[in-house]
């Protein structure tokens, strides 16, 4: 059999498949498209608390309503390895029992790159990204331990 003939038959079969599939397309069928408008979107919004914007809004409200202690506790997750789950100390000194104002002063010093103890270099990268809010939330949580 000659290869041109094989190629021609192949082309014919492929075009036949394409023709058959396009002519049997149902133009009103939306099942496989990423479209959720009208009724679909309305029911999605009902199921999702009023849509993306209000989902985001309630998330922000929950965050704003959280107490400084709760926010500090969430941040404290990255301190546990060195200061212990209850601030009892380990690699780093004990934090439990310290007043909020002291914690704030110490963290602010580390954030500014100040040398306090012999191992301050371990605290500089930890404190560097902290905002004032982060520091006061952490202080509130540590003071409540
Ligand atoms: C990699 C270990 C490590 C991590 C993680 C770490 N610390 Fe420290 N921390 C230390 C060390 C070591 C010191 C002692 C530094 C020095 O010599 O000045 C210290 C000191 C401190 C001090 C001063 C304590 C004192 O009484 O002088 C505070 C406050 C503190 N850390 C808070 C935190 C908080 C809050 C976090 C989490 C956001 C944290 N640290 C994460 C190791 C760590």
Explain this structure.
Helices cover 59% and strands 0% of the residues. The chain is elongated. The mean pLDDT is 89. α4 crosses α8 and α6 packs antiparallel against α8. The protein has 2 domains: 30 residues, no CATH class; 77 residues, Cytochrome Bc1 Complex, Chain D, domain 2 (Orthogonal Bundle), CATH 1.10.760. The termini are far apart. It is built from 8 helices and no strands. The longest helix has 21 residues. The chain is mainly α.
Short synopsis of the structure:
This protein is an all-alpha fold and 145 residues long. The chain has 8 helices and no strands.
List the helices and strands and how they pair.
Layout: H1 3-23, H2 39-47, H3 51-65, H4 68-76, H5 80-83, H6 100-111, H7 124-127, H8 132-143
Helix pairs in contact: 4-8, 6-8
The protein binds heme C (HEC).
Heme C binds next to helix 5 and helix 6.
User: What small molecules does this complex bind?
Assistant: heme C
* CATH H-level superfamily title of the largest domain: Cytochrome c-like domain
CATH class wording of the largest domain: Mainly Alpha
Which series of helices and strands comes N to C? HHHHHHHH
The secondary structure category is mainly alpha
> Given the C-alpha coordinates, what overall shape results?
elongated
* Helical proportion, percent range: 55-70%
Roughly how many Å apart are the termini?
87 Å
CATH fold-level assignment of the largest domain: Cytochrome Bc1 Complex, Chain D, domain 2
The radius of gyration computed from the alpha-carbon positions, rounded to a whole number of angstroms, is 31 Å
How many structural units, i.e. domains? 2
Please tally the β strands and state the result: 0
